[in-house]
Specification:
- The protein is built from ten helices and six strands.
- The protein is of the alpha+beta class.
- The protein folds into two domains: about 170 residues, Transposase IS200-like (Alpha-Beta Plaits), CATH 3.30.70.1290; about 80 residues, Chromosomal Replication Initiator Protein Dnaa, Chain: A (Orthogonal Bundle).
- The longest helix has 20 residues.
- The radius of gyration is 21 Å and the shape is globular.
C-alpha cells in the first residue's frame, strides 16, 4: 500500500514532528542537541525558511517551520541526513536514526499559531521533564520571553506574527499563563474541517479545467500523461467496482493528483465521486 502523499504547499507554516528510530533517543548529550540545531539552521538558511518555535525532547522533536519554495522533504533530507551521519559516527552506531519520514501538519490559519507555540513549549511539562516551560533549556521558550536563544539558530529563529518585540514577550507570558487551548487537527492539517474546506476552495479552486497557466497542466492533459506512464486506462477507475486492483490504482492516482495541487472538486468529478470520498481515499493511500 503506497504511503499517503504529503501535503506540501509553499509559503506556509507547518508543525513538524520527527521521532527516533524505534522511539530510541535522538540525543545522548548536550553536544548532540546543539549539533541538531546547527544542522537544522544550516538547512533552513540554505532554503530561506524560518523557525518559529522548537522543542527538543529526548526521543523526538517538535518544530514550527515556515517554508518558502523548497519542499519539506528536501529540507529535512538535508538536515536530518547530516545529523544522522554525525550521530552514528559520534556514538559508534549504524542504521537509521529517525523513525521513517517525519510528520508534517499544514497550519490552515495563522490564528492557530498561538495554540501551537504553547503546545510545543509545554511538551516538557507534560512529559514531567520540567516543572514549567521556562525551566526547560532545549526549547525556544527563553527566546519568546526575551532572554536570548542558542547561537546555532540565530538568524533563522523568529517569533510568529503577533509576538514581536517587548509587547510580544508580554503577550507570550500571558499565553503561557492562560487556559490551554487544544490544537485542532484534521489529517495532515492544523485546523477543523470548516477551515480545510475554506482553504481548499481558496487555494485549489483557482485552477480551471482546460487552462494551463504558468506551466501547470490542465487536469485532462495530466491524466493523459499518467495513462501513458502507467499503461492504464484511467476511465476504468470511474466504475464502482471495488476490486483490489481498481481501488488501489484509484487511490494512487487520486493521491498523486491531490499532491500536485489539482482541485478536490475536479478530481471528484473525474472519478464520479464526492469530494469527501476523494479526501477519504487520499488519506488512506
Amino acid at each position: 500500500m503506497p504511503r499517503m502523499a504529503r501535503v506540501d504547499v509553499p509559503e506556509s507554516w507547518y508543525h513538524i514532528v520527527a521521532r527516533g528510530q524505534r522511539r530510541e533517543a535522538l540525543f545522548l548529550s548536550a553536544s548532540d542537541r546543539l549539533r541538531y540545531l546547527s544542522e537544522l539552521a544550516r538547512s533552513l538558511r540554505r532554503y530561506q525558511c524560518r523557525l518559529g518555535a522548537y522543542c527538543l525532547m529526548p526521543n523526538h522533536v517538535h518544530l514550527l517551520i515556515y517554508r518558502t519554495r523548497e519542499s519539506l522533504g528536501r529540507i529535512f533530507l538535508d538536515a536530518h541526513g547530516r545529523y544522522g551521519r554525525y550521530f552514528n559516527r559520534r556514538h559508534n552506531k549504524v542504521g537509521y536514526v529517525f523513525q521513517g519520514r517525519f510528520k508534517s501538519y499544514l497550519v490552515l490559519l495563522e490564528d492557530y499559531l498561538d495554540a501551537l507555540v504553547r503546545y510545543i513549549h509545554e511538551n516538557p511539562v507534560k512529559a514531567n521533564l520540567a516543572r514549567s516551560a521556562g525551566g526547560y533549556v532545549w526549547s525556544s521558550d527563553r527566546f519568546y520571553r526575551g532572554s536570548g536563544s542558542e547561537d546555532s539558530v540565530r538568524g533563522v529563529l523568529s517569533r510568529v506574527p503577533g509576538y514581536e518585540g517587548r509587547t510580544g514577550s508580554q503577550r507570550y507570558s500571558e499565553l503561557m499563563g492562560g487556559d490551554c487551548e487544544e490544537v485542532p487537527r484534521v489529517d495532515q492539517y492544523i485546523g477543523d474541517r470548516d477551515d480545510l474546506e475554506f482553504w481548499d476552495r481558496r487555494t485549489r479552486g483557482r485552477k480551471k479545467e482546460g487552462t494551463e497557466r504558468r506551466g501547470v497542466l490542465s487536469l485532462s492533459h495530466r491524466v493523459k500523461i499518467m495513462e501513458r506512464e502507467m499503461g492504464f486506462d484511467v476511465r476504468r477507475l470511474r466504475s464502482d467496482r471495488r476490486t483490489r486492483e481498481i481501488s488501489g490504482v484509484r487511490q494512487q492516482v487520486m493521491a498523486k493528483l491531490y499532491s500536485e495541487g489539482y482541485p478536490v472538486s475536479k478530481i471528484a468529478e473525474l472519478f464520479a465521486k464526492t469530494p469527501a470520498a476523494v479526501l477519504h481515499s487520499v488519506n488512506r493511500s
